[in-house]
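Hi R.,

Here's the chain you asked about this morning:
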Amino acid sequence: MKKILEINNLKKIYHTPKEEILALDNISFSVNEGEFISIVGPSGCGKSTILSILSNLLNKSSGEINLKNNYIMAYMLQNDSLLPFRTVLDNCLIGLEIQHLLNEENKNYVINLLNTYGLGEFINKYPNSLSGGMRQRCALIRTLAVRPDILLLDEATSALDYQSRLAISDDIYNIIKKEGKTAIMVTHDIAQAISMSDKVIVLSKRPATIKSIYEINLTNKSTPTENRKANNFNYYYDMIWSDLDVNI
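And the predicted structure, written out as tokens:
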């Protein structure tokens, strides 16, 4: 597999008037093209900080981030952040507008995504017409609109109830795989991480270091919902749970 992203010895220190807080220490891992990677760890350990640094929302304190030339990363936030006064289509075009990339070709690409993934009839409606799961699907299409190579997903389903979370996990996984994207997802949900991922990275409590990296090889791998029924699913769950310092 082709390596497209390498993180080496990443460190993040937050400075306050009274002290320095070491959030991340010596974080190193690589990402192959087409992989789905999840990051789990205790609450507040710095999972989302990694995504913020990768997306340039935060500066790293030290370390190296090597991204393959011309590859693009896009960040899907925890909250869908759909603007209520813009239609579904216009919400999905925001990133293109901001980057001055909105043209007929890119607009048609987004319309095709909306039609393909079940939102075609809502193109000219407003976000209040959408269910929670549909809003997340809309947010994912907005992220895909700029044609990123790597998607950064921050607790993308945490605001949903359990049943909706299972359904949208299937949606997100299927869309990402069908569109041929690479993904790095932060989640507090071990079962979700195992069911969706090729690799799960377990962080320690703060200052976060990498405790373990698990290659997930589920029997008869399918959709995330079906993957939870795999014979070796509980094996991975027990191993990852035992690695955590506290409940997440």
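The first strand starts at residue 3 and ends at 15.

Let me know if you need anything else.
M.
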